From TrEMBL:
<dbReference type="InterPro" id="IPR036390">
    <property type="entry name" value="WH_DNA-bd_sf"/>
</dbReference>
<keyword id="KW-0238">DNA-binding</keyword>
<dbReference type="InterPro" id="IPR005650">
    <property type="entry name" value="BlaI_family"/>
</dbReference>
<keyword id="KW-0804">Transcription</keyword>
<keyword id="KW-0805">Transcription regulation</keyword>
<protein>
    <submittedName>
        <fullName>Transcriptional regulator</fullName>
    </submittedName>
</protein>
<dbReference type="Pfam" id="PF03965">
    <property type="entry name" value="Penicillinase_R"/>
</dbReference>
<comment type="similarity">
    <text>Belongs to the BlaI transcriptional regulatory family.</text>
</comment>
<dbReference type="InterPro" id="IPR036388">
    <property type="entry name" value="WH-like_DNA-bd_sf"/>
</dbReference>
């Protein structure tokens, strides 16, 4: 897996907008972020600049505006963060995390049934190969 830049929680909010609407201009990013988070335009522009410096985004000038596209795919970022979360809190094993949720009554009957269905479907796919 390639190196994914470290993205702060605030930068992640901006990335989610870029991923959803790319290619997207600075004014469009500002508008869409401000619809969900009460940030000033300068704050959002600072996040965009940081993300370009970190090589999470690339930018090109289109007339008088900058247009952003991602250099990091959302699924890659989520995969990396998920693995880091498991490693940090559950010794890197998914079983430990699920067991923690079960033991602390964090999973409803519906959650458990959904997990069973997912596992059963996965088992059927692997058995059919």
């Amino acid at each position: 897996m390639r190196e994914i830049p470290q993205i702060s929680e605030a930068e992640y909010e901006v990335m989610k907008i870029v991923w959803e609407y790319e290619p997207i201009s600075t004014p469009e990013v500002v508008e869409k972020v401000m619809e969900i988070i009460d940030w000033k335009p300068n704050t959002i522009q600072t996040m965009l600049t940081r993300l370009v410096k970190k090589k999470a985004l690339q930018t090109r000038k289109d007339g008088r505006v900058f247009v952003y596209t991602s250099l990091v795919q959302q699924h890659e970022y989520v995969e990396q963060k998920s693995k880091l979360f498991l490693k940090q809190f559950f010794n890197g094993t998914l079983n430990s995390m699920v067991l923690n949720f079960i033991e602390n009554d964090q999973l409803s009957k519906e959650d458990i049934n959904e997990l069973k269905a997912i596992l059963s479907e996965r088992e059927m796919k692997e058995g059919g190969e």
